[in-house]
Amino acid sequence: MLTKIHHAAIICSDYKTSRNFYVNILGLCVINEVYREERDSHKLDLEIGNAQIELFSFPNPPERPSYPEACGLRHLAFEVEDIAEVVSHMEQHGISVEPVRVDEWTGKKFTFFSDPDGLPLELYER
């Protein structure tokens, strides 16, 4: 039945800021970008490995209920080769990153940070 995750969709409050974050800071490659005038909405398709992130903008989207954590998608995790290198890159761009922890079950390093709208994102070392 299901074979893989095709994409994750994210709605942002400021398209220009979020586009810069996902493309220029996180380094995701643009597949396609359109502006849908009838909806006053941008849609940016970004490549991440064998999957995609769809970044949308809509006028006045409601805030995401995150804290305390709401029911639903908890966070989006990105696999990285060298977590220390990526954390350093993020901090050089002014992005606050939580202290790196070690997963007690896998022994792998991981940490969390947020996108411009406060969406929790994780780095997980391969």
What fraction of the residues are assigned to beta strands by DSSP? 35-45%
- Which residues form runs of ≥5 with pLDDT under 50? none
- Give the CA-CA distance, first to last residue: 27 Å
**Portion in helices:** 10-25%
The Cα radius of gyration reads 15 Å
Q: Strand-and-helix sequence, N→C?
A: EHEEEEHEEE
Count all strands and give the number.
Answer: 8
Any idea of the CATH topology of the largest domain?
2,3-Dihydroxybiphenyl 1,2-Dioxygenase, domain 1
Q: Which CATH class of the largest domain applies here?
A: Alpha Beta
Q: Main sheet, how many strands, which sense, barrel?
A: 4 strands, mixed
Identify the overall geometry. globular
Number of domains: 2
Q: Which strands sit side by side, in order, in the main sheet? A: 1-4-3-2
CATH structural architecture of the largest domain:
Roll
Classify the secondary structure makeup into a structural class.
Answer: alpha/beta
Q: What is the arithmetic mean of pLDDT?
A: 93
Total of DSSP H or I helical runs spanning 4+ residues: 2
CATH fourth-tier homologous superfamily of the largest domain: 2,3-Dihydroxybiphenyl 1,2-Dioxygenase, domain 1
Distinctive features:
metal-binding, alpha/beta, 2,3-Dihydroxybiphenyl 1,2-Dioxygenase, domain 1, four-stranded mixed sheet, single chain, about 130 residues, VOC_core, 2 domains, YwkD-like_dom
Polypeptide structure, described:
This protein has helices spanning 15-25, 83-92; strands at 7-12, 29-36, 41-48, 51-57, 76-80, 101-102, 109-114, 120-125. It is of the alpha/beta class and 126 residues long. It has two domains: 1-60, 2,3-Dihydroxybiphenyl 1,2-Dioxygenase, domain 1 (Roll), CATH 3.10.180; 74-126, 2,3-Dihydroxybiphenyl 1,2-Dioxygenase, domain 1. The strands form two sheets. Strands 1-4-3-2 form a four-stranded mixed β-sheet, covered by helices on one side. A four-stranded mixed β-sheet has the order 5-8-7-6, with no helix packed on it. The mean pLDDT is 93.
